[in-house]
Structure formats: C-alpha cells, structure tokens
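WARN no homologs supplied; continuing
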Amino acid sequence: MQRKQLDEEKDVVDHREVAKSSWESGDMQIQAKELMKVYKNGVAAVNKNSFCVAKGEVFGLLGPNGAGKSSMFNMMTMDLQRSSGDVRILNKDLDELNVIEDGNRMGMCPQFNPIWDNMTVDQCINYIAKVKGLPSQAEIQF
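OK structure emitted
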C-alpha cells in the first residue's frame, strides 16, 4: 500500500536540504537521513524523512493522527526497528550509542509518560513532589 505524498511547505523542503547537506559536517546533535518505516502490511508510516536538530534547539513533530510521529520517535529511541535510513545522535550512529555513557546527555518528552505503569503510588507522589521542589513523604513530619 502506497501512502499519498502531501504537498510540502517550502520551509520543510529547505530543512530537509539542510539536514542532508549537514550529514557529513557533524554540526548537528540529532540527524535523520532518509528514515523509513514500512510495516508488514505494506503501510509506510515514515517515508524517507530527513531532519536535523542543532545544539540548543527544541524539536517537535507535528501532524495528524497516523502521520508517523510516534513511529519516528520510536525508531529514534530504538523501541522500533527502522526499515531503512540512518540516525545519528550526539554525532554517533544510533546503533553505536551507549546508553550508560551517552544517556545522561539527552532527553525526550514523550506524548504519554512511560514510567507511570511501572511505579507504585508512593513512588509517583514522591516523584511529583521532587519535580515541584517539595519534600518527599519520608521527609514530612505528621
């Protein structure tokens, strides 16, 4: 099944060209080149996307449901095998990243928090308290 190619805005086309031309320079913190995900049923969720993110930039993907945003991020976090294309994060090929060495230098804010299902109620409360700068339950005197 082929996916209809939508008309692209000029800034999208320009950014893709910047991404492709910057591939060899190593100036970008995140790079995707010709990234593709085709599912077993033939649906191309991600169709040759190329983009880059410079140091200090905040990057997000916008689009309607089914546009491939989650598939794109799932490939970049290695939660989903890509069909083709290349990804570099921190100037390393995605397959060569060492989570222990490189993981503290990057972050991602997913659509839904993936940790809630793995935490107890107490852990959730303490987590939110720390984020808000409040003392944890153990530090509160009743």
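The longest strand covers residues 44-53.
OK
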